Amino acid sequence: MRLEVVVEWSKGSRERWEWKGGRFARKHEGVAAPVNYGFLPGLINPADGEEVDAVVLGPPLKAKTRVKAWLWGLLWLADGDHKLVLSPDGGEYHEDEVALLAWFESERRARLEGASVAQEWLKELGYSS
What we know:
The protein is α+β, with helices and mostly antiparallel strands. It is built from two helices and eight strands, in the order βββββββαβα. The protein has helices spanning 94-103, 115-124, and strands spanning 2-9, 15-20, 23-28, 36-45, 50-56, 66-76, 83-87, 111-114. It has a five-stranded mixed barrel. Strands 2-3 form a two-stranded antiparallel sheet. The longest helix has 10 residues, at 94-103. The model has no long low-confidence stretch (mean pLDDT 90).
């Protein structure tokens, strides 16, 4: 399954853009992103009432662009703020996976689940491909 992601934060960059009110707003962060970070337009996460977050493993992608990538898995967080994990070419990027897990505070108990868990979560949100 391929999903479209809007990139807010490019891998390796400290500069972050946020989608607010239908447009991008610039936001500075102190730590470089270990992966490309963004969201799925129009799909709402009930945990926070905002669009579902997603990360795209692999090489840096330009911020403020839309990209399609293969669903790889789900980053499960104890507070319910899950994030979809995608791969630009369907490949595995183990260094990115390790960096992604290390990025979250230990109390959030981040863990990576496979594509079947991600698909089930998407189904629970009412997403159909």
